[in-house]
Automatic annotation (TrEMBL):
Lineage, top ranks: Bacteria, Pseudomonadati, Spirochaetota, Spirochaetia, Leptospirales
Originating organism: Leptospira ellisii
Domain of life: Bacteria
Protein name (database record): Glutathione S-transferase N-terminal domain-containing protein
Span of domain GST N-terminal: 3-77
Alphabetical list of InterPro entries matching this protein: Glutathione_S-Trfase_N (IPR004045), Thioredoxin-like_sf (IPR036249)
Pfam family, one: GST_N_3
SUPFAM superfamilies per record: Thioredoxin-like
Length: 80
């Protein structure tokens, strides 16, 4: 699972904090990808999802924008 994000984006912080609260460790349970504007990570976001927006989650075939949707998706996945 990859989370495309950047540090100063509040929506990205919201997702990272929620992942922390779920006990998920970056580099172990998911990969954090730097995706501020002009980075290769942002190019990948646009290529994979069609929009230049973060946070963006990729989990296998699942691709998702929207911080709340991302947190709900991962919460459901953890409890199922
Ligand atoms: N409703 C979205 C808002 C996401 C959003 O506005 N992200 C900003 C960065 S914090 C963004 O991608 N802006 C366009 C850009 O950085 O190029 C969410 O909750 O994830």
């Amino acid at each position: 699972m990859k989370l495309y994000q950047y540090r100063t984006c509040p929506y990205s912080s919201y997702v990272r904090d929620a992942f922390d609260e779920m006990g998920m460790v970056p580099g172990k349970d998911y990969e954090l990808v730097e995706a501020s504007r002009g980075t290769p990570g942002r190019e990948e976001v646009v290529r994979l999802g069609g929009l230049s927006q973060v946070p963006f989650l990729v989990d296998g075939e699942t691709r998702m924008y929207e911080s709340r949707d991302i947190v709900s998706y991962v919460r459901n996945k953890q409890t199922s």
